[in-house]
Amino acid sequence: MWKESLLQILIAFLPVFMFMVWYAKPERFGSSRLFIGVCCGLVMLLNMNYTTVTNHGVHFDLRHVPFLIGSLYGGLPIAFGLLVVYVVSRLGEIAFRWEYVVLIGFLAIYIPVLYAKIPGFGTLNRRGRLRLVLYFCLFLSVFQIASYLIEMPRRLTGNATEVLSVSFVYVSVFSVVTLLCAHFIELGFERIQLQVQLRDVSLKYRKEVRRLQQFIDNSPLMVIFFDNEGRITHVNDMALKIVAPLERKDLLQLTFSAFLERLGTTVDSDPMERILQGEEKLTEIVRLNDRMFYTIYCSIKDMPAQGTDGMLLIGHDVTELHRLQGEVDRMERLSLVGQMAASITHEIRNPLAVIRGFVQLLNERSPAEQKTYFHIVLEELDRTNSIINDFLSLAQNRIIEKEPSNLNELLNDLLPLIWADANMRGQSIDLRIDENIESIPMNSKEMKQLVLNLSRNGMEAMNDKGVLRIETMNLPDVVQLRVSDNGVGIPPEKLKQLFEPFFTTKTNGTGLGLALCLSIVERHNGKIQVESTVGEGTTFIAAFNKPAAK
């Protein structure tokens, strides 16, 4: 008998063991109730074949274990199916009419209670579910003991004390087995919940890492990570653009000093050493590939109290900011020149006009041998007056009158004057015009001044036999005027200052001619740029936007 009883206990645990083996992946959560219900139904039928009767006539039947576990953990549909299996199996074992009354009484009490608790069973915590399982075990135990007492006069042998003792052993075994089954199922659920939580945390972590990686790679800042040994561990896409043609594989594992050496630059001190020695943050202006970068070096903190885990280099391209700052400085100087011109022009021109008139009068009355001196004085007065006129043109802020004009026609008007100036210098003019050039709004007086200034600058940069090329081009969005010489050229370090007021490369220049040219071009909605090679020559390119391309 005890062997059969032990076998029933093992069979009662079978659904739990099968469930723990099968329920190993979170993806199987949706079919877990069905699996529990099927296993419990099979075990109920299997336990029927191993039901034993003690010497006192007590039935040792553990089919209630899978019946209770499957009903609670399987849900209402599974509970209904197990109830059908239970009732059918019990009906086949009934031998007396009073046993029908006992079964009906049991079902009348058990079914409403069970079906009332099943919907909220899944919402309880682990302790609440185990407590409810225990309550149902006690209910079934009380019913089982009551049924034994009812049938004791008819079928049981021995006195009531012995029957109750044996029944208590059965009830204890039943309760322990049921609670253990519920406990192991709860462990299975908790294991899967931990897997789900771990998967969710891992997924969130990967998402955050991916977002952070995308932020770093798509950031407009140069970002480079170094480890504790000063070697590069990561560079973002912006850094790769800055250090091109170097690629990512060329940079990884490079030391900080080797990285700077590859780029051909240096820093005042080694920031890597200072950061690793405990400094929190360093800032410095560094030039990389002819661009200015505001760089920040900061330490990468490890876990609290674990020290530094490397260095982070962040670089912000401030080249454009420096250029804009230079533009602001240039505009301030232009404004200063305008204020100076506006305040002193009339005060100077009136005395100069008087002086020139008297000098010219004295020249007419002076001896022939002194006329040379008066001629020099008159030339210098005229030169002074020309400088004042340049000041006035540079300081113009008023709206100039423009009308559609053809650049080719303007050049044809100026060509005799330019040819005369070139002949005096022993130079020649190469005029190349685009016959399809479109008209643009312009002030002819200012545009003539622009062409004459650029032409004379080119002639002055060449020796005799030089060739000045003046060219017009009709491009899709702009009309270009190109003035090229084959003179000495302009050094690269002076190109950036070329349009600043008072900056000149000539011995006797005032530094206002090109500043005036820039002012005229900007007033005509255009841009001017310079291309120059030392020893080969210089080309000034003035591009004027067409009306439709504004």
UniProtKB/TrEMBL annotation:
A single GO molecular function term of this UniProt record: ATP binding
Parts of the chain that traverse the membrane: 6-23, 35-53, 65-88, 100-118, 130-151, 163-185
EC id: 2.7.13.3
CDD domains found in the cross-reference section: HisKA
Pfam families: HATPase_c, HisKA, PAS_4
All copies of domain Histidine kinase, residue ranges: 343-548
Signal peptide, first to last residue: none
Principal EC category: transferase
Keywords assigned: ATP-binding, Kinase, Membrane, Nucleotide-binding, Phosphoprotein, Transferase, Transmembrane, Transmembrane helix, Two-component regulatory system
Taxonomy, superkingdom: Bacteria
Entry annotated with the keyword Lyase: no
Catalytic reaction equation(s): ATP + protein L-histidine = ADP + protein N-phospho-L-histidine
PANTHER family: C4-DICARBOXYLATE TRANSPORT SENSOR PROTEIN DCTB (PTHR43065:SF46), SENSOR HISTIDINE KINASE (PTHR43065)
Name of the protein in question: histidine kinase
Organism: Cohnella cellulosilytica
